[in-house]
Amino acid sequence: LFEPAVQWTPIAKLSGGEKRRLHLLRVLMEAPNVLLLDEPTNDLDIETLTILEDYIENFQGAVIAVSHDRYFLDKIAGRIFSFEEDGSIVKYTGNYSDYKQFCESENIDAQPNEKKSSGVGKEVAERTKERALKFTYKEQKEYEQIDTVIADLEDKIQEVNNKIGATAADYVLLQQLMTDKEELEKQLEEQMERWVYLNDLAERIEKSR
Questions:
Q1: Where are the beta strands (DSSP E) in 60-174?
Q2: SS3 121
Q3: Around Cβ 19, how many Cβ atoms within 10 Å?
């Protein structure tokens, strides 16, 4: 997000937001395998934050984030570590919405302590409201192509089934075909799960407009 002409600007003359963006850029250019993010939505502008979310989606390492921004946690989190009032730490699989849904089903208070987060909750709520719910670039492309991908996998599975029916006497080939079929069915299951997620997200985006 830096224009080419800005490269000669002394760092001291950059704005606070530009300095934070430059620091993030420098960290990511070093190709880390672990990212520790402390309230990143408080420090980054919305455009930079959107790019960071896209980066994290394709990041191969571990990401540990502390955040009051539920939208951000829904986008990037695969596990939630909840610090309970008794000092224990409980791990939940899924993003913040999954964690909240679990807490509601178990009658557990999932809301952050207002006294501990005075000012922060309001600021994050305003920032989250400002950031319209939308697909990332990767999700948009995936959403456009996923029906074709699923249909292609279904065709490949049918093709393997036809080969299995025609090669019952060849045990070695049959074993290979069964392995291929199992792998294709696994891919299909993963794509079907993504289809459900993307279509649900598309509906929520449409409702938020």
A1: 62-66, 79-83, 89-93
A2: helix
A3: 13
Cα separation, 15 vs 103, whole angstroms: 41
Question: In this predicted structure, what is the pLDDT of residue 183?
Answer: 92
Phi, psi angles (nearest 5°) of residue 133 = -65, 125
- Say if residue 41 is exposed, middle or buried (CB neighbours under 10 Å; 0-12, 13-18, 19+): buried
**Structure confidence by residue, pLDDT tens digits, 83-108:** 888 888 888 888 888 888 888 877 76
Angle made by CA atoms 56, 60, 65, in degrees to the nearest 5? 45
106 vs 90: CA distance, rounded Å: 14
- Please work out, in degrees rounded to the nearest 5, the angle formed at the alpha carbon of residue 202 by the alpha carbons of 198 and 203: 120
Q: Could you count the other beta carbons within 10 Å of the beta carbon of residue 181?
A: 17
> How far, in Å, are 49, 111, 123, 206 from residue 68 at the CA level?
14, 10, 10, 25
Residue 181 has pLDDT above 80, yes or no: yes
Distance CA 80, CA 74 (A): 10
Q: Please give the structure tokens belonging to residue 9.
A: 């600007």
Across 24-37, b (16+ Cβ under 10 Å) vs e yields beeeeeeeeeebeb
Per residue in 140-157, pLDDT (tens digit) is: 888 899 999 999 999 999
Q: What is the C-alpha to C-alpha distance for residues 26 and 128, in angstroms, rounded to an integer?
A: 26
Distances (CA, A) of 127 to 37, 123, 134, 181: 17, 6, 15, 47
Mean of pLDDT values over 33-39: 90
